[in-house]
Write a structure and sequence with these properties.
Layout lengths: L1 H5 L9 H11 L3 H9 L3 H10 L7 H10 L3 H11 L6 H9 L4 H17 L6 H11 L5 H17 L1 H14 L16 H13 L1
Helix pairs in contact: 2-4, 3-4, 4-6, 7-8, 8-10, 9-10, 9-11, 10-11, 10-12
């Protein structure tokens, strides 16, 4: 399991279902979360993210944690379980977007994709489409992935921008040949958008 995970940028061989069960047994414990995070050991840091109080962190603390996180799973869980639930989410999003570190910048785009769906009044959708159109094809792979997710979310959740989102995806062809397992939806934006829209209609 560790060998498989290491190919995806993670340095552990822990069964995440069992790890979640450990966290569930511990319940919320923000002080213990701080101790576990300080170990710099991936499984312990993952448990920390599950038992912490996301709203208790300052924006500066979450920013520091993202820069400390080495494993991709830790970065992903920090974004999804802490940053997205933080009262400072919009500040983090705008702060991270322009960062020179592609991991940090990709976190900004991950928050942007979430904002497109949940708080679209906080973003300029047309400006985002302009930026994606101009920069996604040549972006760092981490940034490219989250830009592509943002493009798909705009196309799925904003019918008035759907045609343009699909057109951008078709012209840039980002992730068009991404290997997709059977019964899974391709991350290629035109296919992703079409499939989700069909499900919504059905």
């Amino acid at each position: 399991m560790r060998e498989v995970n290491e190919r995806h940028g993670d340095d552990h061989g822990v069964n995440l279902t069992k790890l979640r069960a450990v966290a569930k047994g511990l319940k919320t414990d923000h002080d213990l979360a701080a101790e576990l995070w300080a170990t710099d050991v991936t499984p312990a840091m993952l448990v920390a993210l599950l038992i912490c109080r996301p709203k208790a962190y300052t924006a500066e603390e979450i920013d520091r944690m993202l820069r400390q996180a080495r494993a991709r799973k830790v970065q992903d869980w920090l974004i999804n379980y802490v940053a997205k639930k933080s009262p400072h989410v919009e500040r983090l999003r705008t702060m991270w977007l322009g960062d020179a570190d592609p991991v940090v910048a990709s976190a900004g785009w991950a928050l942007t994709a979430d904002t497109v769906v949940k708080r679209p009044d906080q973003v300029d959708l047309d400006a985002l489409l302009d930026e994606i159109e101009a920069g996604m094809r040549d972006a760092h792979e981490r940034i490219q992935w989250e830009m592509n997710t943002t493009l798909a979310m705009i196309g799925i959740h904003h019918p008035d921008r759907r045609a343009r989102a699909i057109d951008i995806g078709e012209r840039l062809e980002v992730l068009k040949d991404y290997p997709t397992p059977p019964n899974c939806t391709s991350p290629y934006a035109p296919i992703w958008i079409g499939e989700m829209v069909r499900r919504q209609a059905g």
